[in-house]
């Protein structure tokens, strides 16, 4: 067995792992990065990037349809898929490998597994094992994997998971989607626009995007139905059959759906399988719990960032945690203060910003009304129709949407903001700043929105509040 000493070992070369490596090298430490599959991770090749490449044509088509005087021909699926392939570099991670090596950091291809305190064994495809020893820290950044619900016959029916949807080569004419969250909604709409003429969304709950404000899911469901997608709420799948083709999905109400493919998008879980957690006295199974410095309590050299720690399954939040973690590791390695404000994760507790790139777009930051009340805040909410904002008219006919602000009445600051409407993602960062910095409403009143833009929604929400 080969053996190598290094300051910091990072297991996982996705966006979170790469950011840890970048920060520790910048801080003067040596770093080894272990990756079993593609450097760049799930987001770069199978999630954020390809899904948005598939969704962008749908968004532009909707924009064009709203503006009189513009005409749009049919979407060319082959061209869209080719653009998707370009966006993911044809699943070639050479560019990401170059970036890691130029930090400089050492990239090891293989399965990384904890072997004891500060020890990681890396098993390459040829079975060769390299033992890495960390002088200061080991950082786990292995992400998450899809969850397959225990429905009889589902696993045997060879369902699509998220990777199958984003790497699709041939769009099925009939598509069934199990789930009502972000992946289900985004990929259901994208594949429908690309040729899945019969698309059925089977949602167990009472609405789409169940973790967001209810109005957002309602607007999205209306849009989907108007586009010809069959959205079935309260749908309970009892069994799935697939001897050959098609796949048949049986529901509790006695009905059945036939489809060429079934996409299962019912959530993800931390990728802790065969990570060797038991070798360092940790339970194997759930998220790897960490404190606000991303360190595992009771194990002073072990850290976990991104989906693996269960705090927030969003790429940008994993990258944020990674920046905190990398800087903390450097500070502790060099004997510097490790309790500065920038060295603690405070954003996850407030409610992370998130964008759902559907039509209409849905985005939110902070707490929903339900979450704020559950947390004991003195809550007041205000809502406003985005279509009534002056700038909305210029975005085209039929511009509809809604905004909602959740306010802490005692302190008169925003606890959360949700937007649903065309292109509202560009409104989100202003809300993120206001929520994170806890800007008083009386101060926010003096942040004047430009006319005529949809950002005038801020003025209207504050007027609804009474300012």
TrEMBL record:
Protein origin, superkingdom: Bacteria
EC numbers on record: 1.-.-.-
Pfam families with a match to the protein in the record: Pyr_redox_2 (PF07992), Pyr_redox_dim (PF02852)
CC cofactor: FAD
Keyword field: FAD, Flavoprotein, NAD, Oxidoreductase
Residue ranges annotated for the FAD/NAD(P)-binding domain, each copy included: 7-312
Signal peptide annotation: none
Family: Belongs to the class-I pyridine nucleotide-disulfide oxidoreductase family.
PANTHER family (alphabetical): DIHYDROLIPOYL DEHYDROGENASE, MITOCHONDRIAL (PTHR22912:SF151), DISULFIDE OXIDOREDUCTASE (PTHR22912)
GO molecular function: oxidoreductase activity
Record organism: Microtetraspora glauca
Residue ranges occupied by any Pyridine nucleotide-disulphide oxidoreductase dimerisation domain in the UniProt entry: 353-458
Protein name per UniProt: NAD(P)/FAD-dependent oxidoreductase
InterPro entries membership: Class-I_Pyr_Nuc-Dis_Oxidored (IPR050151), FAD/NAD-bd_sf (IPR036188), FAD/NAD-binding_dom (IPR023753), FAD/NAD-linked_Rdtase_dimer_sf (IPR016156), Pyr_nuc-diS_OxRdtase (IPR001100), Pyr_nucl-diS_OxRdtase_dimer (IPR004099)
UniProt key word NAD: yes
